[in-house]
Amino acid sequence: MAQPQALRAGKPARPVCFQQVIQALGRYWGEQGCAVLQPYDMEAGAGTFHPATTLRALGAKPWAAAYPQPSRRPTDGRYGENPNRLQHYYQYQVIIKPSPPDLQELYLGSLAAIGLDIADHDIRFVEDDWESPTLGAWGLGWEVWCDGMEVSQFTYFQQVGGHDCRPVSGELTYGLERLAMYVLGVDHVMDMPFNDPAAPIPLRYGDIFNQTEREYSRWNFDSADTEMLLRHFEDAEKECARILAEPALDPRTGKEIIMAHPAYDQCIKASHLFNLLDARGVISVTERQAYIGRVRALAKACADAFVLTEAAGATGESAGEAA
Amino acid sequence: MPDSRSELLLELFSEEIPARMQAKAAADLEGLMSKGLREAGVGFESAQAFVTPRRLVLHVAGLALQTEAVREELKGPRTDAPEKALEGFLRKTGLSKDQLEIRDDKKGQVYFAVVETPGRASADVVAELVPQVVRGFPWPKSMRWGSGDLRWVRPLRSVLCVIGAPGVAEVVPFDIDGIQSGNRAWGHRVMAPKAVREAGFEVSGFEDYKQRLRAAKVMLDAGERGKKIERDAKKLAREAGLELVADPGLLREVTGLVEWPVALMGEIELRFQALPPEVLQTSMKEHQKFFSLRDPASGKITRFITVANIASKDKGAKIVAGNERVLRARLSDAEFFYNNDLQAGLEAGLPKLEAVTFHNKLGSQAARINRIRDLARLLAPMVGADPALADRAAALAKADLVTEMVFEFPELQGLMGRYYAQAAGEDAAVAAAIEAHYAPLGPSDAVPNAPVSIAVSLADKIDTLTGFWAIDEKPTGSKDPFALRRAALGVIRILLENSIRLPLEAQFEAGLAKHPGEGKLEDVAADLMRFTADRLKVYLRESGVRHDVIDAVFALGGQDDLTDVVARVRALQKLLGTEDGANLLAAFKRANNILTAEEKKDGVEYSLAPDVKFAEEPAEKALFAALDAADKAVGAALRKENYPQAMSAMAKLRGPLDTFFEAVVVNADSPVLRRNRLCLLHRIRESFGKVADFASVEG
Q1: CB B356 within 8 A of CB B365
Q2: What value does the mean pLDDT take over residues A158-186?
Q3: What is the pLDDT of residues B525-567, one digit of tens each?
Q4: ∠ at Cα A116 (A122, B196), nearest 5°?
Q5: Inter-chain contact A142–B16, Cβ cutoff 8 Å?
Q6: How many CA atoms lie within 13 A of B557 on its CB side?
Q7: What is the rounded distance in angstroms from the CA atom of residue B500 to the CA atom of residue B498?
Q8: DSSP structure string for B152-165
Q9: SS3 call for B672
Q10: Residues A154, A129 contacting (CB under 8 angstroms)
Q11: Is the pLDDT of residue B1 over 60?
Q12: What average pLDDT does range A59-79 have in this prediction?
């Protein structure tokens, strides 16, 4: 159980702005062998929704990816006024399958990489079991505390889309704004330097997001057309089911092409539309469970489809090679 | 034979075990291993388990290195028994026919099997037992990791298992899902010396393990960690002129989060000290796992203690600064909620309660409040409260449920209501009742004792009980989702501890009248009264009161004044504890048995008044006189509700009754005498029956 390099290394250069924190995490996880991906190009509630996590946690093929993901939580909007609540924020997501035996040490190395020397700080792994009712997913793990602040979620996936994870993926989620504010010693998110404060045009987080927070807060809470959102939810639900009902054999190419990813896009859409409807306050307490159940049914159907694909390691020789 | 010099050391080293699961896990490891060793015939003197966030450890001392050989003799069928019996015996023993011995028995020749199990090395037993215990470990929740199938609470990283004499203990080799047992241990994740962080250290016995572990900055014993935290926290508090707010639950939890506890003290900004101290305490405990430090002069919470898992180079400066910053953000939220709530006012929440469902068959919280107000006004005169204040307190009692602070911290319900009511200038009795009406929450929680608080608390509980009784959602077996047993116990304790006199069944009827229900109101109220009586029995049993004595009082009928019931019960139990009482009971039972038997035989009731003119024997006449005197004295005492006095008047019957049964034959030859004497027995039954139903008393 030797410690990874970063743990033994001396003090790394401390980031001076938000983007350097993101870059440092990308560089570190890239050095640890992860494919450093880009955010998924759809509105999602969390980094977990990226197919690189949700779908790739399924099946037997090894996988290692890291990426930032803009995350939208319409009900958390505070018109840009709350020091640490936003309806749009960033998560940094790392997923490695099978979970390596030194994942905790690798994680601690990532803290060192963004300037948190673990000999100076109190790092604690506090029980926190993760569950996503909309994804039919759960896992056991911790929230990681640094000097009393939750800086990451650390989860060993046990089930996704109703499927047992075999092998198990280790998943790390960093709340980027909160972590960066801590590292940079900033009290209000809008005051955080986004690029280097010494740059010719220094930009703070608020310069970029104050306007959007205000606009989206208004739209999320009061303006979004709920009838349209409802219609789109139902369309996404229908399209997801329709896609998955298509026969696997593609008439044009004569090949087997299961369309798990396009179907899953519709599931992500439905999930976000549900969140918007929730923020508009048009979903009653009793209806809530029913909507969550409908999204979960989509996620499960997509998972059922994905495990039959080559990417999941399902089809014969080619999958064997990749593994 | 246990060998006082040999021992077993087992360490299951994993990623962080949830704090709340640690104590039970240690007990389970000790229990399962001890049981397994014992069943395999491995002798040992003691077993003790230890737990830290990252390791579950067992030390077995005085361990026998060999199990003893066991010789067992089994008697089989007779040699002339059918072949099938012999086959069965061979199957059972696993022997063949020529391995059996034939011995002479009284009835002939019998097969005997002599099974000898040779002693085994204890190490072999352990090598089989540990994987079995690990695989079947009763974690409340367990998981898989990596590519394996093994389940543990979090990934199991290494297993240390050595056996033998301390200092020379050797590895017990086994494999659990690819984890090979060894003699290597790891220290504190950050603070262990570099060499240990990189390669761990080798262990040759328990003392050696404990010492090296300590050198690697791990305190193995949770008790020691807890004591250190408490001692250091108190010292820091004392030095700052403050006192530590004791919190055993938090201490247990924090002890389970650290291997090397370091208590650090931080400041709370002055502006947050305007918040109610309970808000600071709750926010700090729930979110940050901080202990609160109180200024004894002002009662305010002015600082906090956080327990770090590291002694950092800068003596905790960065850690404290970080924790203070996190706390500032937290308390800014709390302050924001508090100010919003104060600005809105408590009454502003009332309309919102219409939209809050209490239970789908029992309506909204607003509807519930209206019912509680009616009940509180009704109860107020009976408990000495001003009905107008009781009404006001009931109206506001649940208003804090829709405040921002209680939404954030549900455990502050009631308390925030009190603060907000005080701020709004409500009567002090009203504010106090808003907080106190939830009490008592547990068997050891204090009951409200101010009249307005009592009225609202009783009204709240009676509404809950009658509501769920009306919709037939009573507790069954171990299921009591609406905590109705607790509500009934609350009613009981409030009445008894405040010596309140009131007809409870009538209050149940008043409560039920507000709930549309299926059953007949009186029947449902009577059923709820029986339930309450049962809870009373359970409650009194804990203070040593006999259930049959309670039955004897309830059997009088119409007993729904619990304070009165308990006074009778206590007086009766005291009487029964004396020699007079025991003999009196025996005499009553004798009279009652004879009477019951004769009435059954004759098919009549001897309920006419006996006539003293048919009394022949002096003992008989004396009993008439004694009964007259007792009836008079008991009647007078009962009217004054002086139960001890009534009991001592009853006790005076003992002598006359004993003499009567010695001297007089009840079943006399003369039918007139016999009937009169049976009627006399009936009168005895009636006299006793005014105090309690003695037939229900056991003994």
Answers
A1: yes
A2: 95
A3: 999 999 999 999 999 988 888 888 998 998 888 889 999 999 9
A4: 65
A5: yes
A6: 2
A7: 5
A8: BSS-EEEEEEEEES
A9: helix
A10: no
A11: no
A12: 95
Contact between B141 and A129 using a beta-carbon 8 Å cutoff: yes
Q: How many residues does chain B have?
A: 699
User: Which residue out of B16, B145, B326 would a mutagenesis test of the A interface target, given it has the greatest number of A Cβ atoms within 10 Å?
Assistant: B145
* CB pair distance less than 8 Å for B322 and A139: no
Q: What percent of chain A has pLDDT over 90?
A: 84
Distance CA A100, CA A25 (A): 18
Q: What is residue B648's predicted lDDT score, i.e. its pLDDT?
A: 87
Q: What rounded mean pLDDT belongs to chain B?
A: 92
Helix (H, G, I), strand (E, B) or coil at A122: coil
Question: How far lies B526's CA from each of B464, B520, B536, in Å?
Answer: 16, 10, 15
Counting other chains too, the contacts that B445-451 makes at CB distance below 8 Å and 24 or more residues apart are: B447/B490, B447/B493, B447/B494, B447/B497, B447/B498, B448/B494, B449/B497, B449/B498, B451/B380, B451/B383, B451/B384, B451/B385, B451/B386
Burial of B688 (0-12, 13-18, 19+ CB in 10 A): buried
Helix residue ranges, H only, B441-561: 451-470, 484-497, 504-512, 521-542, 547-554
Please state, for a pLDDT cut of 90, what percent of chain B lies above it: 61
Residue B109 DSSP SS3? strand
The DSSP H or E segment spanning A244 is: helix A226-245
Is the CB of B77 inside 8 Å of chain A's CB atoms? no
Radius of gyration of chain B (CA): 36
First to last CA, chain A: 25
Interface list for B 198-257 with A (CB within 8 A)? 198-200, 257
∠ CA(A254), CA(A259), CA(A265), 5° rounding?
Answer: 155
Q: By the 8 A CB rule, do A257 and A248 touch?
A: yes
- 3-state secondary structure (DSSP) of residue A219: helix
Helix or strand (DSSP H, E) at A218: helix A205-218
Chain A residues within 8 A of B145 when measuring between CB atoms: 98-99, 156, 168, 170
Q: Please say whether the beta carbons of B397 and B373 come within 8 A.
A: no
Closest C-alpha among B611, B612, B614, B624 to residue B660: B624
Compare all CA atoms of chain A with the CA of B191 and give the residue at the minimum distance.
A119
Q: Hunting for tokens 């409807």 — which residue is that? A: A277
If 0-12 CB within 10 Å is exposed, 13-18 middle and 19+ buried, where does residue B588 land?
A: buried
- Interface predicted TM-score (ipTM): 0.91
Pairing of strands A63-72, A35-36: parallel
Residues of A in contact with B313 (CB under 8 A): 119-120
Nearest chain B Cα distance for residue A182, angstroms: 8
- What confidence tens digit (pLDDT) does each residue in B176-194 have? 999 999 999 999 999 999 9
Identity of residue B105 = D
**In sequence order, what are the residues at sequence separation of 6 or more whose Cβ sits closer than 8 angstroms to the Cβ of residue B19?**
A126, A127, B53, B252, B253, B254, B255, B256, B257
Residue that is written with structure tokens 């639900």 in the block: A237
In chain A, what are the domains? 5-218 (3.30.930.10), 224-322 (1.20.58.180)
Across the interface, do A84 and B325 touch by the CB < 8 Å criterion? no
For residue B75, the tally of other CB atoms under 10 A from its CB is 12
Q: Which element (helix H / strand E) includes B659?
A: helix B654-663
In this structure, of A16-30, B236-250, B526-540, B589-603, the range with the lowest mean pLDDT score is B589-603
Joined together, the tokens standing for residue A194 give: 């986004």
Q: Which of A122, A148, A168 sits opposite B310 (nearest CB)?
A: A122
Residue B60: φ, ψ to 5°: -110, 120
Q: What is the model's pLDDT at position A315?
A: 63
For residue A116, the chain B residue with the least C-alpha distance is B318
Measure CA B93 to chain center: 47
Nearest CA in chain A to B16: A125
H helix or E strand, kind and range, residue B223: helix B222-239
Q: Which pLDDT does position B477 carry in this prediction?
A: 83
A–B CB contacts, 8 A cutoff, strictly below: 112
